[in-house]
């Protein structure tokens, strides 16, 4: 599994004109599922996300070179933030040969959807507030990045 995790001030996903997922302060997470991925990888990454300290501590001293107070001392759970999870098979794009990406390393849609939904359930079981995109749909996504903080996680 591959995740691109971005700290946001707000994020929203629309399918057509309908908002299907929306959060305030929290994490916007793109999820790619590979052919070899199982529930084991989903469990491990959900547990990592729940504990990952990427949220700002407004009381921390100014960081060297930083323009403001932004020491990452807290997890999403610590600050009661939300997560917005969106499926993204293109995280498995391979551009080694030619100019058109190949997606042969991405899981087939049926398997990917099962693991994606399992991952979301695991986040919810850990007590996180979770919103989602719409699996397999064309989505319009709006984010307001915070920091910016972007972290790539792989199982």
From TrEMBL:
Family stated for the protein in its record: Belongs to the DTD family.
Pfam family, any one: Tyr_Deacylase
Q: Which GO terms describe its molecular function?
A: D-tyrosyl-tRNA(Tyr) deacylase activity; Gly-tRNA(Ala) deacylase activity; Ser(Gly)-tRNA(Ala) hydrolase activity; tRNA binding
Q: Which SUPFAM superfamilies match?
A: DTD-like
Gene3D superfamilies membership:
D-tyrosyl-tRNA(Tyr) deacylase
Natural source organism: Candidatus Woesebacteria bacterium RIFCSPHIGHO2_12_FULL_41_24
List where the motif Gly-cisPro motif, important for rejection of L-amino acids lies.
147-148
Q: What is this protein called?
A: D-aminoacyl-tRNA deacylase
């Amino acid at each position: 599994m591959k995740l691109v995790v971005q700290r946001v001030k707000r994020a929203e996903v629309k399918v057509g004109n309908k908002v299907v997922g929306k959060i305030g302060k929290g994490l916007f997470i793109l999820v790619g599922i590979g052919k070899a991925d199982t529930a084991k990888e989903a469990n491990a990454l959900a547990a990592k996300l729940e504990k990952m300290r990427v949220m700002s501590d407004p009381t921390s001293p100014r960081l060297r070179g930083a323009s403001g107070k932004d020491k990452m001392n807290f997890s999403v759970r610590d600050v009661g933030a939300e997560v917005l999870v969106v499926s993204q098979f293109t995280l498995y794009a391979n551009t080694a040969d030619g100019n058109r990406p190949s997606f042969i390393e991405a899981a087939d849609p049926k398997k990917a959807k099962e693991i994606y939904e399992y991952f979301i359930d695991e986040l919810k079981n850990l007590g996180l507030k979770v919103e989602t995109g719409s699996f397999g749909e064309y989505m319009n996504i709006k984010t307001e990045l915070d920091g910016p903080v972007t972290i790539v996680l792989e199982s």
